[in-house]
Amino acid sequence: MGNLLLASLALGVGVLAFVLRPLWKDAKGTALALALALLGGTAGLYALLGTPDALDPELVEAPKTLEQAIVQLERKLEDEPGSVEGWVLLGRSRASQEAWPQAVAAFEKAHALLPDEADLMIEYADALMRASEDGRFPAKAVALLERAVERQPTHQRGLFYLGAQRLQAGQPAEAAEFWGRLLPLVDAQTADALRPQLAMAREQAGLPPLPEPEPAAAGPTLTVTIELAPALAAKLAEGDTLFVFARTTDGAGLPVAVKRLPATGFPLQLTLSDADGLMPAQKLSMQAKVRLMARVSKSGDAGAAPGDLEAEPVELAVADGAAATLVIGKVVE
Fold first, then answer.
1. CATH code for the domain in which residue 200 is found
2. TPR repeats at which positions (predicted)?
3. Partner of 278 at 20 to 30 A CA spacing, among 16, 67, 160, 253?
């Protein structure tokens, strides 16, 4: 059993090395996303292969290497070809070995079983690109990327790859359009890395220079952690939008700060400051206390609607570094 866990640990490290940096934080609230997260851990193969001690030792021998563990996974998939989680794990395993044709074959099987999952489309397209001799996205990969972003317009990795593909194809204006959509979705560190690429695409397309980023807002910054109650995890869907508001305590007027982002990756942490305000005359920094609210919108609109998911409001004194946690735990009736 120890050898199997070591093999699983090696796979976990490989998968983590394969997963890209902050840009790729696109976990979805679907059953597959949960499976992908679990299978990316150190005991992914252990979970799928089961406990060797409980099996006939003549039929199954505990793997001593990663390759042996993968071979056992392949044998298991012969018996359970409908396991999308197994095919995804096999694809990621082969990707960690840079065995791209084998990774493509595994992701193709997974995609056939779950054709509408955006994350899976992106991984499949990535493997197709890496398996190509010229290092470019083949037509099938481009179609997968476009379909993934059509289904989920804020998919960060999809937007990035489509921008890169368009630049490869000599279409810098379209590259700039995709990367321009991506820029406001990413964190500050990732934005700093993306801006030179976006500026280059705009220059090649003959577009005006990219505006300089706004300076960091003066005044207090609040840190807000958003959690999703486990009982509502199954109600989260692709394309849902998370709104986080800071309002005056009496609820009058527009929010003094608001953020809109994809409803993915819970629990997540964000900040609210004057930079997130809607009206210069009503700033967060002007308030002694605010009421924090969070809502997952099914329509993408800021207003509450039946079926949306929301948290109980929390009041917080406005001070730099003040922090609060909101738990999305009820369905709007």
1. 1.25.40.10
2. 84-117
3. 160
Q: Does residue 294 sit in helix, strand or coil?
A: strand
CA gap 330, 281 in Å, rounded: 33
User: Are residues 106 and 84 in contact, defined by beta-carbon separation less than 8 angstroms?
Assistant: no
How far is residue 135's CA from residue 137's CA, in Å, rounded to a whole number?
A: 7
Residues β-bridged to residue 296: 242, 309
Whether 66 and 22 map to the same domain: the answer is yes
- pLDDT (tens digit, 9 = 90+) per residue, 110-166? 999 999 999 999 999 999 999 999 889 999 999 999 999 999 888 989 999 999 999
Residue 112: give the domain boundaries.
2-204
Other CB atoms within a 10 A radius of the CB of residue 251 amount to 10
Q: Does pLDDT of 41 surpass 80?
A: no
For tokens 């090696």, name the residue: 10
Is there a domain that residue 211 lies in? no
Average pLDDT over residues 323-329: 96
Domain count, the chain: 2
What lies within 8 Å, CB to CB, of 168 at 6+ separation is 136, 137
86 and 179 in one domain?
yes
Q: Taking each helix axis as running N to C, give the angle between helix 84-96 and helix 118-131, from 0 to 180 degrees, rounded to the nearest 10.
A: 30
Residue 23 has pLDDT above 70, yes or no: no
> Angle 331-117-115 (CA atoms, 0-180°, nearest 5)?
130
DSSP 149-185: HHH-TT-HHHHHHHHHHHHHTT-HHHHHHHHHHHGGG
Residue 241 in this model has a pLDDT that exceeds 80: yes
Q: 122 and 239 share a domain?
A: no
How many residues would you count in the chain? 333
Residue 292 · residue 276 · CB < 8 Å: no
Is 52 in a helix, a strand, or coil?
A: helix
Report whether pLDDT(213) > 90.
no
Same domain as 108, residue 41: yes
Query: CB within 8 A of 214, min separation 6: which ones?
Result: 275
Q: The CATH number of the domain where 310 resides is what?
A: 2.60.40
**Scanning the structure block, which residue is given the tokens 């997952």?**
296
